[in-house]
Amino acid sequence: LQSVRSFAEKFLKTEPRLDLLINNAGVVDAGRTVDGFGLMFGVNHLGHFLLTCLLLERLKEGDPSRVINVSSIAHCSGQIDFDCINTHKDLGLGDSFYRIMKTYGHSKLCNVLFTHELAKRLQGTNVTCY
After folding, report:
1. Which residues have C-beta within 8 Å of that of residue 85, sequence separation ≥ 6?
2. Which residues are catalytic?
3. Rg (alpha carbons) of the chain, rounded to whole number
4. Lesser CB count within 10 Å: N end or C end of the chain?
5. Smallest Cα–Cα separation from 49: which of 8, 94, 101?
């Protein structure tokens, strides 16, 4: 997530406005991020979440602006174990094609839930979310 923080810091120093943020990075692979999170959870969701949060004030300064979080129909097979998210970094690990694809679905469900909640929180502002 340090790379996301570094990008946001540089962006905020050099760019006076932000009208559109498209979160589209994604992977379908096992492994861990540098921070120790499951790779798909870290790249497919946490990076998007953090980048949006770090750039949100700049987005609010736009007139109007929007956030687009690209997800997948795979979100329909996703399930969220909030205890796992709160207590472990293992969300996003898998050792078979089936487990990896299930984990991908979990990360895409996180995208959908984040977008829905962000849209609710930004009602009444000039930022829309899709």
Report:
1. 91
2. 104
3. 15
4. C
5. 8
Distance of alpha carbon 8 from alpha carbon 99, whole angstroms: 32
**Per-residue 3-state assignment (H helix, E strand, C coil) for the chain:** CHHHHHHHHHHHHHCCCCCEEEECCCCCCCCECCCCCEHHHHHHHHHHHHHHHHHHHHHHHCCCEEEEECCCHHHHHCCCCHHHHHHCCCCCCCCCHHHHHHHHHHHHHHHHHHHHHHHHHCCCCCEEEC
CA distance 38 to 22: 22
pLDDT in tens, the chain (130 residues): 999 999 999 999 999 999 999 999 888 888 888 988 888 889 999 999 999 999 999 999 988 999 999 988 778 778 877 766 655 555 556 677 777 888 888 889 999 999 999 999 999 999 999 9
The number of angstroms, rounded, from the C-alpha of 89 to the middle of its chain's C-alpha atoms is 16
Give me the pLDDT at residue 89, please.
Answer: 56
